[in-house]
Amino acid sequence: MSVAEVRGLVKKYPSFELKEVSFDIEKGRITGFIGRNGAGKTTTIKAMLNLIHTDGGEIRYFGLPLAGNETEIKKRIGYSTGTVSWYPRKKIKDIVDIVKRFYDTWDETAYRKYLGMFALDEQKTPLELSEGMKVKVNLLLALSHRAEVLILDEPTSGLDPFSRNELLELFSELKKEGVAIFFSTHVISDIEKCADDIVYISQGRIVAATSKEDFSARFSEAGETLEDTMLRMEGGQAHA
Questions:
Q1: In this predicted model, what pLDDT tens digit does every residue of 117-141 receive, in sequence order?
Q2: Residue 226 has what DSSP assignment?
Q3: pLDDT tens-digit readout, 6-33
Q4: Domains contained in the chain, CATH given
Q5: DSSP letter at 121?
Q6: Helical (H) or strand (E) element with 71
Q7: H helices within 64-127, ranges in order?
């Protein structure tokens, strides 16, 4: 069941263009969004959250168009960038007190659970945190209002290997609860570990949007890892 649908998304910049980007995000599945720097991942994610004006296409969540239903939809989705850049001198506790007012689905039990899981000190400010801990703060906020869809831009950025593996295990637990997870990453091994589906973008165009198994069957050569396949395709064969 699709909980999010991106159809014919177009965004034109002077030196770059998203070209008819289309894919689905399925309930209870983890989708890895891959592509090299500048391929269009962050632009796509910003468009999916109506953070930029697009030149064409439609985005729907839960069967509703984002246009005209943004407030209702955003109560049901969670979003995280790689870093925290707002309220740098406020304590995490104070940031949380502000954010939770916007969500009638805020779950204090879940908040306390993830606060402990991520080993975060809510008396600290973002300025006092490492890059990896800042990522965890954003995820803490996204997970604490029982989001049905998580849209995460480089969520493992800055995390040490242990913390990254812990986060991927958390993704696997969340999908058992029916949560849809869509995350971009440059760490292809993360995709190999936990993704069910792959959306691969190259030069603003979707090359593949399919299951991980189908992607490997279609594009991988004998003995290749997913990373090997990506490197070869980006070497000049992405649109073959």
A1: 888 999 999 889 887 788 888 888 8
A2: H
A3: 999 999 999 999 999 999 999 999 999 9
A4: 2-76+148-237 (3.40.50.300), 83-144 (no CATH)
A5: -
A6: helix 70-74
A7: 70-74, 92-99, 108-117
